[in-house]
Amino acid sequence: MDTSLVLVLLLAPFLGFLFNVFLGKKAGKSIVGIVGTLSVFVSFAMTLYLFGNANQEPVVINLFDWISIQRFNVSFGFLIDHLSLIWLLFVTGIGSLIHLYSISYMHDDEKMHSFFAYLNLFIFFMITLVIGSNLLMMFIGWEGVGLCSYLLIGFWYKNQDFNDAAKKAFIMNRIGDLGFLIGIFIVGSLFNTLDFTSLKNIITTAKDINDFWIALAALALFIGAAGKSAQIPLYTWLPDAMAGPTPVSALIHAATMVTAGIFMITRLNFLFDMAPSVQNIIAIVGAVTALVAATIALVQNDIKKVLAYSTVSQLGLMFLALGLGAYEVAVFHVITHAFFKACLFLGSGSVIHGLHGEQDMRKMGGLKKAMPITFITMLIAALAISGIFPLAGFWSKDEILMTAFHANIALWVIGSIASIMTAFYMFRLIYLTFFNSFRGTEEQKNHLHESPSLITLPLIILAILSFFGGIISLPGNSWLNKYLAPLFSKVVHEEHQFGNTEYMLMAIATIGAIIGIGIAYKKYLKDNTIPSEDAEITGVTKVLYNKYYVDEAYDAIFVKPVNVLSSFFRDSVETTLSALIFGLGKVTNEIALQGKKIHNGSVGLYLFAFVLGVIAIITYLFL
Amino acid sequence: MNVTTLLIILLVGAFATYFSGDKWAPKVALLFGLTAFAGTICLLSQYNLGQEINYTKLWISKPNISFALQADGLSLAMLLLTTALTPIIIYSSFGNTYKNSKAFYALILFMTFAMAGTFLASDGLLYYIFWELSLIPIYFIALIWGNGDAEERKKAVVKFFIYTLAGSLFMLVAFIYLYQKAGSFLINDLTQLKLSSTEQFWIFLAFFLAYAIKIPLIPFHTWQAEVYQKAPTVGTMLLSGIMLKMGLYSVIRWQLPIAPLAAKEYMDVFIILGIAGVIYGSIVALRQKDLKKLLAYSSLAHVGLIAAGSYTLTLDGFRGAVLQMIAHGFVVTGLFLVAEIIFRRYETRKISEMGGIRAQSPKFTSMFMILVLASVALPSTFNFVGEFTVLYSLSQVNIWFSLLGGTTIILGAYYMLKMFQHVMLGETNVRLFADVTFNEGLCLVIIIAVLFFFGMYPKPIIDLITPSLENILTQVNRFNQVK
Questions:
Q1: Domain range holding B440?
Q2: CA-nearest residue of chain B to A185?
Q3: pLDDT confidence of A623, banded at 50, 70, 90?
Q4: In terms of Cα–Cα distance, which of A254, A230, A467 is closest to A344?
Q5: How many whole angstroms from its chain centre is CA A197?
Q6: Where are the domains of chain A?
Q7: Distance from CA of B82 to the nearest CA of A (A)
Q8: Which residues in chain B are closer than 8 Å to A563, comparing Cβ atoms?
Q9: In angstroms, what CA-CA distances link B87 with B37, B179, B239?
Q10: What is the rounded radius of gyration, in angstroms, for the C-alpha atoms of chain A?
Q11: Which residues of chain A does B418 touch, with a Cβ-Cβ cutoff of 8 Å?
Q12: Does the reported pTM lie above 0.80?
């Protein structure tokens, strides 16, 4: 594996970015699309090559010293190992598909070249994140993808609501990033290196490790991961991020960027293994996030919002697995989720595209005839995410639930309930969108059509992957587990013995999924009307619909007080401080004025003062 | 050549500019600015080759004052900042016309001369003279060519002048006291003094007043926002890009090595003061209505962090502080230029009167965005290198310090992105906004190139400053062995 190959892999999307920034407008839309897509495809091809020829040993490439700290240097370097290769595969693979899709989807947008530029830049930073050889390199990618996310959420910048959403995403991520940085500081001062390979060696062989500081580092890093991967309490930016164009939601806010937190924790598994208390926190946060987000998804009417909360919920399941130390299971779900969630988002994009921007599912319906490919691919993805045998989601979700079952029954219950809800809201989405009759305007109805092949082709590929993706990690004979095995310090998580319990659990999960789908069927398919609680939102539904008012609470607790404080500082403290300084000047002035009165030219007074002074001096000297 | 040559270039430049007349003054000033920059590069290479570039000559024998200029890595780094920014600042002003421009540009070069002298002087009194000298040109620049109501401007500028002057007088008193002890003003003699901890405390405090006002640290910052707002943008750039760093530089160069015991004793207090500035400045910046004022408060926040880093008395703290000084110098100059570019088109600095500019000016938008990102220390920009190092040094003193100081990455993103949103985004503004001119674009591109280059490869600067900072650290720690 040589350096230039990795550099091509990394820099191809960056060159695409530069091209689209500087020449995109002149080059025209077709060229922009082709260059943008090709540049990512080059990375994908390189990844495939590396993947095919990969040695068992990880490869480290250090280019030069970047930042110097007194006790260590941080190098500008890359690490290619099995973990980065897995991530590279789906980042560049799905990335290529979504670029392809965007050629058609964004074709009518006057700023298509900027769109492709940002998308290319995103892939570049995502690759940096994945192949960085130390924590700070990862941090470059980490903040870089955050920047692209910001740029793309606010892509339609004339709408200030979208700009607010973009800003919110960036700032909430930065809260996590501060945690990440603190984690880096602690790791740096404990081990005098930020390099992954050295860290692993030091931590796995060290004898006396300070438990408290390790746990603190792990906790801080987890806060970073929670920000990027939208976990409680830092999840509220992700649903708002749906303001961005739909390919962005598919690529960044479903398949790739939001999995960065999982990547980071998996990368540092040796560290997290040393902090069981933090692992517990991760498991609990993951499970609760999975459940809370699923409940909110139950009642959303915006098709993308459903998918967004679904993403938060699924990410929660992955964190649950991470917290239980089952890193390979989490990675498995990351991959299958990337397939079916990207498919679902792109499918919803196809629907929105067909309806000229309509996102409210109450105004959809009956689209399966007009958009058969979109329908079938989305149906497959929905079955996959619901965990129906033998689709990809079945295998990966089942592994998570099984792990949870063996670890803690309560976590298993929470995970299972979240999964049943998943089946329900996904089929609510499918039924409302594709079944019964169309509820939109006549005008829209006349223009209903299937999307062009540039849009349907990625859908078909992703649907196939959603169907068969489970193959990479079948229970009992998991290729993925073997592939990732060298990464993990502990081999605690042997593969489960496959016995009656496992079959029972699978059965329960499947029945749960079918129940979820059944309820949705009963509620949304039997009658050709929208259920009243969806048409008019009241009661518990209202609380769910408004996402438990968490946004409002954050606003009241953090945003408003800071702004009030700001006004107070600006209007009161600043003016007072300023006046004080002037006050000092005035006092001096006053003393001078008083002094002036004494200096009135009266020699008698001067003499008097002189005599007094002399007496005072004599008294002082002789007494 | 030696360092005196550089000062002579700048001084001669100031006179030449003045006598070249209004029409030619800008170009002559630019020429001398560029020559000074070339001179600095020349000095740098000589320094790296180990050639002698220092200059010492007895100036007055009673009292014993030397005309002593000494350039180590730290001074050269500051010199580089000064002479690199000066031509950019001069060139950026070509988009404006000034009455009596020969005096205007002559004052700019004169100020650069004084600031360069401050960074080079190794004799306390000479240093003090340069320090005070730099105040005079900026006083006139702000007073004569500033904007807004003349009466208010005069009030703000005079306040600034007297305030900083008063602060510096305490430093003068400290120097005189030190002279009585050492019989010399030379820094090498002053840092050899064995002062008692009480003496050190008072000297430290006297220096502190001078520097805290200049930097400025809260609560000594009240002159800043108004002067930044009222001064012409060139003046604001000189102030925030370079002059602020005189205070920060002096902390590391003079205050800490002369009175290290006091610095150690009260380390926490001064770190907290710096961090308080970070949080306070950021919060005040959040709701500023005036673009230049907002940038002034953001500066307050950034220099607070730099000061906190310096007061950690660690190599990382010093190094991060110096890196961040340079990075901040560039980014803030760029941001004030952005404010000026908007002012040239819309004749306003009120954020509420802006908005919807992005659609009309893609180049300007991109460059502005990059500066905003550099200002919030996005990794791969120079500012990240500095900020990371400073925050790391704080974490070594106390993890809470890095957490509190680190709020800058959240609050900074908040006020900067909010500002960017209101200035640039939204429905297309009905008033025409022409994209950047060649002149404006070139200035911004140079600044951006510097920020990215050193963001990816800060090693040359790190290698330049590290040996000098280690020397200073040895001086700071000289009392440790005694104990």
A1: 266-483
A2: B392
A3: low
A4: A254
A5: 25
A6: 160-552, 554-622
A7: 24
A8: 286-287
A9: 8, 38, 15
A10: 30
A11: 167
A12: yes
